[in-house]
Structure formats: structure tokens, C-alpha cells
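# nightly structure sweep
# worker-07 picked up a monomer target from the shared queue
# config: single-sequence mode, recycle default, output format = C-alpha cells
# input follows
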Amino acid sequence: MAYLDNIAVFVRVVELGNLSAAGRDMRISPAVASNRIKELEKHLGVRLFNRTTRQLMPTEHGTVFYTGAKQVLDSITEAEAAVAALSGQPRGTIRVTAPLGLGRRLIASGIPDFHDKYPDIEVRLRLSDHNVDILKEGIDVAFRLGVIEDSSLRMRGIMECERVLVAAPKYLEARGEPTDLGELISKKHDCLMLRYPGSKEFFWMLQTPQGPHKLEVHGPFDSDDGDVLTGWALAGRGIINKPRFEVEPYLRDGRLKVILTGTPPTPVQFAAVYPHKKLQDPKVRLLLDFMAERCQRLIRDLLAGR
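# output follows
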């Protein structure tokens, strides 16, 4: 097993680019990760990485070895999944990611319940509003809101979610409530955007009688955390575009108000995405089934004010 452990560390170092990140991912110290790489290099008789101050880059030998090593680990994972399916006792670790707000509200609170039901399955949850590279970072399941563009991934739709444009009464009193989409631009309303490195959405897609309309809006500041945008909106600092279930409590207590109801944002798909082979893994299927039912129920409760 020690040799396989060394291979597993090597693969994660290649995928994450440094020892510290790989160590955190595998719950070992950077020193232990470094020693396992050294053992592997000694066994193979070649150098696997070129070391720089910030990143480890695989050598030619390392690149060749990575391809075969990844196939070996994938084959072992598939074999273990087949045995688990046959025995009816799924076990192992699932790496899960979700956006910050959605993850906090819907996913994180369900992880302990899932573990209570399936105690042999460990879950490692990573919350980020950034676009996580599922394949590169070894993610098993990613919960997402929005269009899924990567054709190398499978998708399981969970729910189509209504979006709304909302602002605080304080903001609308100070700036005036827009009566049509054109006023968002002509009156230079503060439209607060979710942006991060690699983000592609610098616009709002809105529903009009003529069909979907792409509106390039602007604001004085943006954030890579959706909950920060909500906080700014609550403070009267601008207009945000949000799934209704995320802001429903504030709509009910009057702290936010829906605007431009005749031309709302297009709905957003809430879905789980995963690499093609992962659905063969029974523990992944169990998590998808558990979270899909739970999230649908929680969203319905939020919208109903329960």
C-alpha cells in the first residue's frame, strides 16, 4: 500500500501544483508528501518534478508517469466501487464542491445527516464561488447554479430556480425605482456583480416579450462571494440578481424588494455535475439521491416561508 500511497500523492501534486495543496487535500503534512515523492523518485530512478519557488512542474518523465499512474488509481477506484456495489456496503471518500451561499444553505447542513445514514462514507466539502476545475482538482460531485458548458461532465438536474432582481427600499428611495431595463443603464444604477478570475458573466440575461435579452450592467464594486453582494444590497448599496430562494426571507420581512417584475432574469438550473465514470460509484449515487431530495425540499420550504 505504501507504493500506491506514494503514487496517489504524486498524482495530486501534479494536479494541484504544489506539495502544500496536495498535503492538505490528502490530510498529510507537506513534509510527508515531500518524502513520498522522494521515495517514488528513488524507486523509479528519475526526477519527477522541476522545483520552483512557487510550483512543482512535472518533468518529461513525470508527465509520462502521471498518465499511467492516474489510470492505475482510476482502475482501483472503479474496482473498489464494483465490490462496494456487490456487497451493498459503500465506503470511501467523496470530494464535493458547491457555491458559497448555496453550499451553506443547502449542502453543508446535510453532510452530517448523510454521514449518519452512511457512516462508512467520508465527505470532504469545499465551498467556493469560483469556477472549480472538477477534473483537475479531483472533485467527485459539484453542485452548481447556471449553465454547464463542459461536455466531459455528466449533469443531474435538481431544480429550475426562479431569479429576481432585488434592492433595498433605502436604495430605491435614494435612486428611484427603475421602470424598465433601459433605466438600469441610462440612470446608471449600481448593479452588483459576482466576479472572480475566469468569470465569464459580465451581464444579466433577462426575459422580455421579444425573448431573452443580454444586458451589460455596471456597478461601483463587485465580489467573488455571493453573500457579500446580498449584504451590500441589504445595506442599500445596489441591485442584485439572485435566485429567489436565497433572498426570500428578506423579501418577506421587507428588507429587499423585487423590481422589474415584467422583465425578470432568466431562471437558473440548480444541478449536480460529475465526471462520466463517477455515477458507477454507488457512494456517489447515494449522495446525489440524498442531496437532490433534500435540496428540493429545503428550497420549497424557503419559498413557502417555512
